[in-house]
What does this fold into?
Amino acid sequence: MEDKRTHELPELYAPNGGEGPYSYSQNSNYQRGVVEAAKEKINEAIANHFDIQTFCGTKNPVCIVDLGCSTGANTFITVQNIVEAIKLKYKSKGVNAQIPDFLVFFNDNVSNDFNTLFKSLPPNRQYFAAGVPGSFHGCLFPKASLHLIHSSCALNWLSKIPIEVMDESSPAWNKGRIHYTNAKKEVLEAYETQFAKDMESLFSRAQELVVGGLLVLFVPAVPDVMSNSDTFTGTELDILGSCLMDMAKVGLVEEAKVDSFNVPAYYTPPKKLKALIERNGNFSIKRMEVLNNQKKHLILQSSSLRSLYLKAVLEGMIEKHFGNEILDELFNRFTHKIEGSSFFLNPETEKLIILFVLLERNN
Amino acid sequence: MEDKRTHELPELYAPNGGEGPYSYSQNSNYQRGVVEAAKEKINEAIANHFDIQTFCGTKNPVCIVDLGCSTGANTFITVQNIVEAIKLKYKSKGVNAQIPDFLVFFNDNVSNDFNTLFKSLPPNRQYFAAGVPGSFHGCLFPKASLHLIHSSCALNWLSKIPIEVMDESSPAWNKGRIHYTNAKKEVLEAYETQFAKDMESLFSRAQELVVGGLLVLFVPAVPDVMSNSDTFTGTELDILGSCLMDMAKVGLVEEAKVDSFNVPAYYTPPKKLKALIERNGNFSIKRMEVLNNQKKHLILQSSSLRSLYLKAVLEGMIEKHFGNEILDELFNRFTHKIEGSSFFLNPETEKLIILFVLLERNN
It folds into this structure.
């Protein structure tokens, strides 16, 4: 299953081209709001915690990585912000002349479209660029070779579906559903356990950072006190699962196929993530707060647009599991079901948050 | 024109799959001979000149780049050889425990198929891998960030066609030909001048190497004393040009189009390359010798195979300039012309050499 997931992940962020009603440029106001709010946090993080005295000699380049960069424009905007913030710090300290070279590694799964990424690199960039293929749940870089690791909206994707939820003999068997939203508590626990394992492997990136190096995370998450059905994505996955079950009842898909299909997306509450960081011990928490996306009210609201968006995210995953002939029927049913729902009409209903987490590598 | 060339370059090394009569595996004996002979040279170079004392601290990774890596298997074999040779050196010096991490950068033009390269990375490789897109005639890496630069069979491709050979008013105008082989001396001089500029930009890679770092080159070249018509490629380009002119005479292509088409491939004599290295001054020449390819007798001899090989190399370039409708006619004519020639029957006729050049960065 790992392959299926990794194969599909990049779809999530691959923007539709052009300027039409379904184009990224017309539908990315929410995402652009995240990038803008993140810029401020990155600037503060670097101003207050990026230690140019200790770990930037005049000769060594500053090495930065964006984990889960995908192919799109957002990674270039973010990386540019990071480089500018570090340069600004040199200037503000009056050590202008010592500004080092920058080497930026763009990381994503092997199945990511690096050709497109490379062709879109900004021609006037102020850094050297390299692509690094591979899951960030494995080892990617030499020891102590990085100064800053960034990752935005990637950690919510688990490295794999928890085995138990697909195991008939397990109490966590997720029969008739495709996600933990509204499922029995054992299913949620299995997802939580997998997320904890994934965070442990992410935090082993610490050895790839120099001492004092920064891990800057933007994590799609949920408030500590809430029901999982209070996020658009959770609710949508629940409704999509019910559409699949409807189709199983009329013989359009096998019910066993629905039982074995699960979407490996997990949204952590801040408290749980904090506990995982502290248990791991490689990092000190410098900041942990909810990002204030001032464009939250621009979230997609029409049922057809939300359906298209979810289809873009899950299409490949569904196709691989069920075959492509069910796609139109499934998403027609889905659009129809959410049309009747008032849930998506009010952006305030959406409880999903983006958590900004700034970690510093311990000695 | 630069784009056209860079777009097509990777084709040269992209091996045909499978095991059929036109597959790379059936036709790569000559190339494999180069890789095998190169291995010995690389081993010696590292044993004698890679200074593990000076520039490999225990904490910093050894950084290696392959310039012009393409997508294929050869780059992985070569990189593996380099890593093993350096490890062997650590072992032979009894500093086993200090063997550092290795970070290998695979470089080629932006148009190279990095997706394929990344998917083919050996799963059990002993190094961290990154892809770096861009021409090695421009700046690619931070200052003093590399320990060894390797490039095989790439320097014979010029960064662009010399402008003069396409300029009607220039004495170097290459009317009716597509290469300098058998052309007037001004054409050859224009190619030589472009090659000299390209080598100057290659040698500026010195600043990206640490002091004492190595530049290991395998350069398709010609003996100092010979006629350019004594190489298979030169002769083939000359014949291909004559086929194009034949087609122009019967109205199948425009003559002006032939006049403006030139193949940016140059094969240097060793003496000229040596002079360019010395004039540049960034490097000391540690070794410079002809590679002994013991599989030279396995060079492709049949006219149809040579035609296919040349087509694979030039197809995209020709298509971009003339359109794809002329391809079949052109290569049919070409195959027919070389069928009558005894030139390609004897591998000893081929005077092309592979020059091994080992350079060390000066202080």
Observations:
- Chain A has one domain: 2-361.
- Residues 2-361 of chain A form a domain with the Rossmann fold fold (CATH 3.40.50.150).
